[in-house]
Amino acid sequence: MIDLIQAELEIRRILNVRYSNIKTIDIYTKRFMDFVRYYPATEPIDIKEAELNAYIKVIISKKSSRSLIMQFIQVAEYYFNHIHKKSFVIYRQNIPSAREKEINTLEQEQVFLMIDNFENMKHRIIFVLVYSCCLELTELLNLRVSDINSKKEPFYLQVRNASGDVVRKASISPKIIEYLNEYWQTCITKPQEYLLEGPEAGKKYGKTSAEKVIKKAFEENGMVSAFVVKTLRRSYMEHMVSLGIPIISILEKLDVHHFDSIKKYTRAIHGSVKIDFTPLDKLIGKPKINEPEIEDLEQLVFTLNSEDEKEYLLEAIQCFRAGALKAGIVFSWSSFIRILQNRCEKKGYKAINEASAKLKFRKKFEKISDFESIKELNLLKLAFELKVISKHQLSQMENNLDLRNHCGHPSSYKPEINKAKAFIEDLVNIIKNEP
Known about the structure:
Layout: H1 4-18, H2 22-38, H3 49-61, H4 66-83, H5 108-117, H6 121-132, H7 137-141, E1 148-149, E2 156-160, E3 166-171, H8 174-186, H9 207-220, H10 228-242, H11 247-253, H12 259-270, H13 291-301, H14 307-322, H15 325-345, H16 349-358, H17 376-385, H18 391-408, H19 417-432
Antiparallel strand pairs: 1-2, 2-3
Helix pairs in contact: 1-2, 2-4, 3-4, 6-8, 13-14, 13-19, 14-15, 15-17, 15-18, 15-19, 17-18, 18-19
């Protein structure tokens, strides 16, 4: 039997070389590990072409979705042919066609996956800018090299209309600048005037070609949309609303001011909202933690490896946004505990049991779920003994455990916003900085 933990760590290491988004890595790791478990007695590197293709036929016969099958084929192609130079001819017949159901918006996870699947950097930047800056194709193709301000904050690009006039500024983040730099570095002939140029220097990239790039990305991920650019733009709006930005602020930033347009977009994002109560009938929540205070938590989500670590932290962020400080503290603490358990496990069960015996816990650890039967204070002590956290961090988290206990049990205790902020800061620093 192969070591599944080691196999998962190895595939994650390999995928980290190519993919930058943790959600993409999680999806491909899951697909690959399902394959590894299908051949439990064979090391992945020793699996033959015929065995690989037999597995693909099995998942097709189980009527798996097109996206699942294509995700596995992509990770298998990368692992066997790109990393290990196997030259396998991978079975691609009888794969179900893209689903016929028309989609109006994408899940954020789907967007990340599609971005990471681009091998052509020009094609990737087309997709990235349409989505992240909510651009029409005309606005994208009118972008000039001089329209990009990536040297001094605030970073932005100037958006031009069909006539070439600047109509607005679109914010771009360091992540977008990273994508732009990767694109620029891969250009053998650097763009002369427009950011995206065709074969002839100084001439814009074709509108039809740009739309085909986006449409192909949809099709390769098993999705159908007659209006792919519209779908990307609507996804941007829906995702920004989910992140706490009012739709009216988004539309104002996009230079949409006509009442009928505002009404159309508001209804598309929020649907028809029935108002059948007054402010006398419902209580308004307590003051919430503002966005700048939870940005570090949001960035942490992208660095976490397991779904349960991320799930707790995402729920904590939603609670903090809503002003539910007690719930936010409890959920973020749960995420920290799961991260601590996973980091202890990486030390190996031999070291864990030696530390446990030294601390006189009378507990034998054999699997990750065994951590759930010890008190959280003892987990902190075990993590310190294993050098997962430092002495100073142990002291910090013992204090934060008290705060978590106050919030997690019925009482009249109400945490102050400053205490919640300090709690977040401690967690972020410890998770980001292993001793």
